[in-house]
User: Fold this.
Amino acid sequence: MGILSSMYTGITGLQGQGEALSIYGDNIANANTVGFKTSRPEFQDVIAKSLKGLLGGNQIGRGVRLAAVNPIFSQGSIVQTESATDLAITGDGFFVVNGTDGQSFTRNGAFHFDKDGKLINADGFRVLGFQADDKGKITSKMGEISVDRTVVDAKKSTQVDMFMNLDLRAEAKLEFDPRRPDQTSHFATGVTVYDTAGTAHVVTMYFNKTDDGEWTWRAMAKGEEVNGGKPGQMMEQARGTLRFSTDGRLLEQTTDRSSFSFNKGALPNQEIRFNFGEDIKSGGAGLSVTQYGTNSEAYKTTQDGFTAGTLAGLTFNDDGMLSAIYSNGQTVNLAQIALAKFENPEGLFKMGQNRYRESRLSGQPTIGAPQSGGRGRVSSKTIESSTTDVANEFINLMQAQRNFQANSKVISTADEMMQDVLNLKRG
Assistant:
């Protein structure tokens, strides 16, 4: 009977709108959940199958059913925080985490380090990324991101790079005296170098003009800091020459000797290369060190050594690179955050706890570095807020409520008509 079937049709409407209310309520409940993506119900009509229906036309619907609950992966707002381990993805991609139930994926980047130095989320799932080698170069090896290098070893100085000008107007009559180097040199500048034990030493560079366009340089250390030296004296450890062209550019550089024998446990005969830039003879421009008619002046001096240091801080950059900052000023890359991309993220299986797992509908993940292969950018000290629009969800709630009331009217009306049918016999 059509009246009885209309009651069941109304019931499907009540069930569908009730499920819609649950979905909208879940969206509202997660308005403050980091990385949460709202979902929407998608309904389909139900048709009674009959022979006449198969031939087309004159088909009566039998209500509605919930066909799918699809998450909407729109971009959430990026909110600034004070934690260096808070990460947000702008664009496509998911963080990859590993836990007791295997590998899963999330947009929630509220991470922190545990007592073992592992980067984890609030539930203890460990964040995966690409590991760095001993020199800080990121490799293709995937693993748990951790900080296990709390101390960085000392590195001896092997090269000193100098950028300077030597005064063309200097007279080539000044004879250098190692007992009075400051008074018998045309120009002097200092540079800090490190021995094999990581101890810092100030080496003074002395420059003497010996002829037109030709200079002799000497690297001297304090006598109390080198083997066989005497306190109060400067001991020559390296020496060479510089030759300039007539236009003031460095034509050629040579090193006659370079052997530093620092004391107090450092290895002797440490060789340090003093580099004055690419000279003309080796195919360079010869402009790092020049000989112009202006005062002698050192613009910049750099070297590649450093002392040992302890971990002072951690930082992420926009490439998802985790770097450790040490007390000696060195920065070493430890790992890079991995992002997973899916062809159909709407098909992911919800795990709860802001996590997803791949499914047959989502396809397999393609894991790579941020800002590669269409993956988004990772930013530090930020989190991605929920995509719930409370005002919009309230409108959806009111609409679902009205639809629920309307379907209840269908049932009550069918019930009244059924009562009229039963009253026919009495009449």
